[in-house]
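User: I'm new to structure prediction. If I give you an amino acid sequence, what do you actually give back? Let's try with this one:
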Amino acid sequence: MVSSPGLQSEKNKVWVPKGKASPFHDGPRNDQLLAMVMALTVEVSILRERLDTHERISEEGGGFGIKDVEVFDPDTKAQGERSSLRNRIMHKVFRVLQAEPKK
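Assistant: Good question. You get back a string of structure tokens that encode the predicted 3D arrangement of the chain. For your 103 residues, that looks like this:
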């Protein structure tokens, strides 16, 4: 599973559900949906931890505030990096739809 510490080496790792199928659902489409929800949950959890870190550092150091975040306009380089990150997340979440369901 992907975790927030040491993110520099985690970017290529993908969380893959293993083990027996859950008895709470049936069919490959439900398996795909569950895998997508789990991938999104992992990403949101990591994002929330990183956001919390930024908020705490800012609060301790008297740094930026909410208004600063609202008016921030990313430059071209930042937009490109965000696009790459967005594509990685989308690939991670939707890759289960491209793979053949295991029977």
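You can read the tokens as a compact description of the fold. Here is one thing that stands out. Residues 27 and 95 are 17 Å apart (CA to CA).
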